[in-house]
Write a structure and sequence with these properties.
The structure is a homopentamer. By secondary structure, chain A is of the alpha+beta class. Chain A has two domains: about 280 residues, CorA soluble domain-like (Beta Polymerase, domain 2); about 60 residues, Up-down Bundle (Methane Monooxygenase Hydroxylase, Chain G, domain 1), CATH 1.20.58.340. Chain A has nine helices and seven strands. A seven-stranded mixed β-sheet of chain A has the order 2-1-3-7-6-5-4, sandwiched between helices. In chain A, α5 runs parallel beside α7 and α7 runs antiparallel to α9. The longest helix of chain A is centred in the last third of the chain and has 66 residues. At the A-B interface, α6, α7, α8 and α9 of A face α3, α5 and α7 of B.
């Protein structure tokens, strides 16, 4: 339930722009990391403790990337927002982790919300983390909900910046934001592979040994895909608008890269829809296999009952205690009856063979 | 039924613009409350008894918000409408509580119909109240069907106006109308949370102990969502047109706030659709679980019948009264037969084990 | 079948514009009624027998409304059409009562086809009557299939014209046509109420006592809604185009009234779709209730069979006639066996209780 | 299968424009018929053997309609095409009878592909014949696959031309092509009537006596409708483009006739979709009726088994051969047991009555 | 699984434009073949080993077609790309064989990705091979994944070029690229024919002898069609954009040929959708046939049980050992009971006949 719907009722009735964090606080302390590169200067990365420290970056020609891990301390977000002239509604959205992916263009900067997805090996399910990105002329700010070690999809971007020779350091903030979005979308393929494996397992199970758990498995996969879909569909529009909108913040030469991300997004959506169709096909098969098995059970019952009930009836007749029952006195009466019973038995078997029940 | 379809046949055949109230009269008396603020003046709130009292507000520079609780007294609505040059069709719509959410632009003013939703704890269902909003240059008029104590979603807006420092009092009627719509839409999330809880309960019940009531539960949830959806889908267009239409009544700076409401609306719709898909998935599971249980029942029957019917047949044979049945005279005939029966019994059990029925 | 598909094969192969009546002739004689009003003159209503009588109206400044009941006399339709320069295809369409609702703009006049719907109490089903409307500059002509007494939805318009004070008599033909369409659409709500009641009955029946008739009932409702939908969906476009098309025949001030009709049409469509969804949900419930009942039946069978078959087997054993069966000679053999049987019986009952079958 | 998919693999790998006939050759020899009318001249119709004979028509002011029956002789098609400057791809398409209805505008001429549909009474199924139409300034050429006697839907057009007074002979090629398309579409209504009858039969059968054949019947109807739909849906676009495209070949005054055909096409599509919905509703009913009947069977079994199994058990007890069974010696033991059995029997019957199984 | 989802996680986190091959390496060595034709020169075809050899072609007036078999050697692709100024993202896409069909216009050249489909007779399934096409002013480059002997769909194009008289050698690169795409799409019809045969087999099997394998067969066909659809749907847009986009690379006279390919694509999509509908109809029939068969089984069981259980009960009664049972002493008691049993038997048979169970 939790993943498909986030509580936000605590916010009901507050003025718009009221900064209240909605979500599960994952971190003890927010962590701010500032990258600076471009121009003559070398690439620098440093952790800063007071947000105020980093605001000069706005007016410098170098490119600054401020990554904020954790969004639960409203006052820090507010300080950053106020200094950079970010609209109060944007700050409110950053704090609220139940956003739908979206893009908003404020001329001076573009605000983007995305979902990073991680695969939780333990529970075999998808987990999401909200990422807010602000693209300015000379700066990019990213807000992540948490920073579990070894899980950050931005690491690959960091490595490339440090390398110093990558295209990233030679180009502007638009290429940086592209790289970040690309890293997020690329990671979706990892999630899809996990789903792919689960669906393959499921198909295997369906053929070999469908059980009641199989139904639960199908249901869970369906829910996870519903969840995935909810985050990926709006992404399509986000990337498309980023590519097509007329804004000075995105250079023409970056557009082609964004188109590439767009293609990937379409591919992710395509695969999700294919998965959904496959799972719904599997449900049909599961239901048919239940019916088939019931048929099998019924056949066994019917064969046994149909063969033995008439025979038992015959035995019952000669078990009656009438004073005058001529057959009972016959020398071979017993054997004749046994013989007749055998005939009936064989006849029944042949009948069932003909009907293909045996 | 009632919620999904409102009777309005009493209106059939009347001239358009004929003012007839359609709906359940909830209030004894209509209640008019007038807020005035903006300019130099302090915020004032007063209840007025004669509509005429409040009409000077139209030409004053201050911002006036007239809230009308109850819409069953046609003559009061008419008086208000006539004084403010409201189109007769609008007055007709205000009185008719079976409207679909919609927006109409009359240049001089904009007319909006929305639905406030409340959660009825007692019956675990959603209740709706129609709200008509008229946005003029210097005034806002809102018409609510009823005013059950402690339930009005506009209360949060009232508090903020009284506070006097909120953004509301500093801006025009467009921001006020935004605040009112935002309050209504925000409250939808509360409704969604109730649904979320019910769906979680349902999932729990499905796994642990599905009963015939579960089906009724699923059906009721489905109906409630149908109802919710009917009121929320058109809302999307209402807010979108309010944001995008070229009208002098909405300032540019308010547009971004309306976009925020629009995002919330999309989120509500998204969640409703997700809920619908989940519920339809649950119906599948429920049906499968019925089939599965039938399978279980059949298996028990089949095992018992298949094991004992042949044995009973054998007993029947030696219960026959033929004069000449050699086995009957054997010293250990009885025990041999018992032994054979035991063998058959064990053979059957092994057979069922192999078929995984045991 | 009839309602969903009208035979029109008799027309196959004829030249376009050939005037042949298609439909069930309901009237003995066509009836022409002419209303004249507007200008200085009083409102006049008179029945005319020779169509020629009424043609001067075309060039008079007053507003003329010619209502034609019955469309089976091709030569009368032709006479009217020729005198007013109506396109032959329009005359053909007027005669053919299997039209889909549509609108056609011929500059000089607008041709509209609609369906009036009546509720047939006797068969609990919807009946339709085709109405053709021609909107000219100074005249409106309406063609109805029949004129069953007390059923005409135009009566309310007639009353208002006679009243002489209604907005109708003060305005042009565009307002008259609006009034007529409004009267038709308003009547759809009456039909919807009948459906609403039937669906409520159906829900009641489903919960209390679903029978084989219930399925037939569901099926019939579904078909009736299919039928309704077929006539209402195209209406939406008709009204929308009437409102939006640039034509000199519709004044700006009438547009807002047409928008109101448009809103009603949307509401009708909305309700139909909601009804359809509810009915399809009911089918699911019906099917589940069949399965549930089968489960119940199976359980009873299984319990009885499972309890008594083993007991009967035991009785069968001691009914065998072996010469040497030591238990038979025991003093309390009989009572011991009875006691064992009782134990088995009680054990079975406990087992079924645990499985929740009892 | 055949109707839903035509083999065309023999063409794979050939150069575009290669003239190869794809389809079942129906005729021994192609038949060319030339109509000439318009201007001063009388209407003339003659069969021609050498295509070359008829090419002068291109430059004559009269209107020529060349109808070609049979499309299997590639060289004749080629000769016609080359003389009239028809694009090689068009000639290829004429020969290939597996086309989808389509329209192509080549400025000089318009190429249209349609499907004529015939009802095969014998197999109760629809048969199709491909018709290619080329509309030039002064000529119309039509290519039909075959010419089974008495089946040609163009006959009605021929009759009207011969009449000499029809609108056809007074107007240009655009009106001729309209007449031909109209004849084809009109004939679809005949097909729909056959379907209507079959669906009515099916409904009757479902209510009175559904059998396994009913399912096959439903399935066949579904397939036939799939087939019909495949040919009619694209037709909509063909007629719409013919009406709306800017081309000198269609006069304004003919547009209104094409709009009429367009309306008919919509009506055909509407009816097909309605039929499809009805058939899918019938499948639901069929499946429910199977379930209902299974329920009936189960009930009979359960009642019999539940009533007699306990009684048989009691009889079994008193059939045991224990030496000491006091009841057996009672004077009225037998009658007491019979009485108890009767009580149980009656009790069971009452129980089943209460459960509404009887 | 494999076909519906390709692993690409190994690429996650790499910089865009990083050339890494994704796919199954099918070839030992890449093979480059260069065609040159057009102008005065004869058609020449030669295999080249060093990519550098062929780059002069860019500036020659003749038309060059470089076909590359195998895409696993990144450095060769890179060399080609760099020399022809191909964008790094395009080179990355060429190496990645999990692309969706798409088209990208880079002004200087157009990049197209398509899927060639082959029918694997052995496993009765579809196999795909990715083809990348680059259309320049004077050159066309095609990249294929593999070159299994006798399977290349481009062979027909090669033959036509060698012929030297085909339209291909007289026209530009746009006609060449059309010919290549046409060859690919034409081959889809071969695939569809295989499906058509399988569906016909399936229908046959469903009617004559549906088994559990039938369900698996249906499921497999469904999956294969899902796969097919995934590759064909985007193709539609690719061809449509190639035809409609304003680019100097495509001449007007080639557009009509592309429109022809577009028509074929629509036909392929149409057929796939028809197949999908047919298969889903078959699943319904399969499920109904399971239910029907269960009904049959139940009827047999019920008839046997219902006939013999009461008879056995009667036999049981007269098997009781009561001391005083008057009937037992009757002279014809036994025969009277046999007669009564026969009556009951016949009565039952008549009852079942009436109910149509026999």
């Amino acid at each position: 339930m939790d993943k498909l719907f986030t509580r936000r009722s605590e916010k009901t009735g507050l003025a718009p722009g009221t900064l209240i964090h909605i979500g599960d606080r994952k971190l003890e302390r927010m962590k701010l990391t500032l990258f600076e590169y471009g121009g003559e200067a070398d690439v620098s990365e440093r952790e800063i403790s007071i947000p105020g420290e980093c605001f000069p970056f706005k007016d410098q020609p170098t490119i600054s990337w401020l990554n904020v891990d954790g969004v639960h301390q409203a006052q820090i977000i507010e300080e950053i927002g106020t200094n950079l002239d970010i609209h109060p509604l944007v700050m409110e959205d950053i704090l609220n982790t139940s956003q739908r992916p979206k893009i908003e263009d404020f001329d001076e900067y573009i605000y983007i919300v995305l979902k990073m997805l991680y695969w939780n090996e333990e529970h075999s399910e998808v987990e999401s983390e909200q990422v807010s990105l602000i693209l300015g002329d000379t700066y990019v700010i990213t807000f992540q909900e948490g920073d579990e070690a070894g899980k950050d999809v931005f690491d690959s971007v960091r490595v490339r910046i440090h390398g110093g020779k990558s295209r990233i350091v030679k180009r502007g903030t638009d290429y940086l934001i592209y790289s970040l979005i690309d890293a997020i979308v690329d990671h979706y393929f990892v999630i899809l592979e996990h789903f792919g494996e689960q669906i393959a397992d499921l198909e295997e199970e369906l053929v070999t040994d469908p059980s009641t758990d199989t139904l639960q498995f199908i249901h869970n996969l369906k829910r996870e895909l519903l969840f995935l879909r909810k985050y990926v569909w709006p992404l399509r529009e986000v990337v498309s608008r980023l590519e097509k909108d007329e804004t000075d913040l995105i250079e023409e030469s970056t557009s082609i890269y964004l188109r590439d991300v767009y293609d990937h997004t379409i591919q992710v959506i395509d695969t999700i829809e294919t998965f959904r169709e496959m799972i719904s096909g599997m449900l049909d098969i599961y239901l048919s296999s239940i019916s088939n098995r019931m048929n099998e059970v019924m056949k066994v019952l019917t064969i046994i009952a149909t063969v033995f009930i008439p025979l038992t009836f015959i035995a019952g007749i000669y078990g009656m205690n009438f004073a005058y029952m001529p057959e009972l006195q016959w020398r071979f009466g017993y054997f004749i009856v046994l013989f007749i019973m055998a005939l009936i038995f064989i006849g029944m078997i042949i009948y069932f063979r003909r009907r293909r029940w045996l």
